[in-house]
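User: Hey, my collaborator sent me this sequence without any context and asked if I could get a structure. I don't really work with proteins. Can you help?
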Amino acid sequence: MKLIRVRLVLGVLLSTAFGGLLVLLRSQLVEFQAPSMDLRPLVSTELPGDSLSLPLRKFEWQARTPHPLDLKYPYPYPFLRNHPAKCKDSRGAPFLLMLVMTQPQDVGVRQAIRQTWGNETLVQGVIIHRLFVLGLPPPLFTKELHGLLEEEDREHGDLLQVGFRDTYRNLTLKVLMGLEWMAQYCSSARYVLKDIDTMKLLRQRLVLGALLGTVFLGLLVLLVSQLLESWTSSMNLRPPSPKISLRKFEWQVQTPHLLDPNYPYPYPFLINHPHKCKGPKGAPFLLMLVMTQPQEVEVRQIIRQTWGNETLVPNVVIHRLFVLGLPQPLFAQEVQALLEEEDTEHGDLLQVGFLDTYHNLTLKVLMGLEWMAQYCPAAHYVLKVDNDVFLNPGFLIHQVLHPERPTRPDFITGYIYLDSEPRRSLEDKWYMPPEVYPQDRYPVYCAGPGYVLSVSLAIRILAMAQRIKAIYLEDVFIGLCIQELGIKPTPAPPDAFSIIRQEYEHCAFHQLVLVHHFKPQELLQLWPDFQTDNDTCPME
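Assistant: No problem. I've predicted the 3D structure and written it out in C-alpha cell form, which is a compact way to encode the shape of the chain:
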C-alpha cells in the first residue's frame, strides 16, 4: 500500500502542475488576443426613449422564452448598500473612481486590497475613490453574511451592494450597475476603472507560485504520511483533528434552514405610492393589503371591479394596495414592463425587492405592514387578504369594525384556529420542519385567507417581528407575535369567515365577511347578483 500511496501523490502533483501550466498558457493567449484596456473617460450616450417595445397583447411574453444565460437588463435593481455622498466630500470630484468587482464572502480579499493597491491615498495629489461592487449572498448564508457586510461597511464605507444574486454569470449586471451608480452619484469623476490589466506579471507569479507551492505541499504530505504511518504503527496514535476558526467565518458552519424567511432585512419598495393615504379624503378607515403575484394581471383587474372597489361602501374611506414581489427570472423584463404599465393606469401596486414565492409570504405580509407603518399610520384598520376569496366589505365594516365606534387598539379577528398542530409530512403544502418550529402546537392565530386588525396592533406586531424568529407560515407567525404580546384574537360573528368553499347563495353571502377558494371568473359571474337588493332576505 505504501508504493500505491506514493504513486497517487506523484500523479496528483504531475496533473496539478500540467493543469497550472495550461492555465498560464491560456492567460498568455488571452492577453495576446485582447490588448490591455486603456483608461479612458466614460462617454455618455443617450438611449432612445422607447428602447423597449411593449408586447401588443397582455400575455404575448408567455410564448417567448429567453435563453437562461440572457441577462435581465435594463431592470430596476436596487442599491441595497449605497454611499450617494461618496464623491461629494470637501476634496472635490475624484480623478479616478475604482469599481472593484467582489463577492459578498470575500471579506479578506477586500481588506487586502484596501491595504495595497486599493488604498485611496496611494497616489499623492490625486483624488481616488474606491467602491467594492457586490450582489446578494448565497441563500444558505444570507443572514450571517448580511451581518458581516453591515459591520464591514460601517467600518470602511466602501461597499456598493446591488439587488441581484452574486454569480459569475451576473458579472455584466455588476459592472453596469456600478456604472449606473457612477452616472447617478459621481458623474463629475474624470475616469472610472473596472479591473486592472497591468496585473499580468503578478498573475504569472501567482500561477508559478501556486505550482511550486502545490509541489512542495504534496511532498510535505507524502513525508507526513510516511511519518504518521511509522508513528501510528509503533505508538497507535491518531493525528489531531483540525479546528475551525470561530471568528470572522463562523457563518460557514451555521446553515439556516431553507424555509427560514430572511427578516428583518431592508427590502426596498420598487413600486411605491408613499402619498396614497394623504389624499383630500383624509386617512382611510380601512387599508386593504391584497396578496398577489406579479403575473396575475387579470386577477387584480377583477378584484378592482368587485370587492376591491374602493368606493363600494358609502361614506367610508377605503384604500387598496396589491402587494407583490419580483417576477420569476425567465420573464422578469416582460412582466416588469407590464407591471409598470398597470401601475401607471391604476396606481395601486406595492412591489417589494424579493422573489415572489409562496415561502416568502411572511415577508410579503410584513413588508405590507411596514409600508402601512411608514406611509399610512393614521389608518384605523388594516385587512390582510388573499386574492382567491369572496369578500363582503360592507358586512366587514358595519358588522365587525363599526366605524361609528372608537377604534379598538388590540383588535384582530378572522377565522380563529385554537389548537392547531404543525404538519410534519414532507408532502404537505404546509410542512413545518421540527428544526424550524419544534413545538407540538401552534399558538392561537387567525387563518391566512383573510384577517383584519387595528393599525396600532399591527405596529406592535412589527416591533415584535424584529425580535422573534420568523417562520414562513405568515398566519402562524402573526399568531406567535400576538402571543408574545399577550393578546388573543377577538371572535367574529359566527361563521363570518369561512375558510372552506361554500356555494354562492345571495342571502347567506350577505351575512358573512369572507369565503375562501373563489376563482376570479366566479366573482365576475356572481357579483352582479350580489349587488342587487336583499330586501327578500330574512333579517338576522
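In plain terms: The first helix runs from residue 2 to 33. You can pass these C-alpha cells on to your collaborator as they are.
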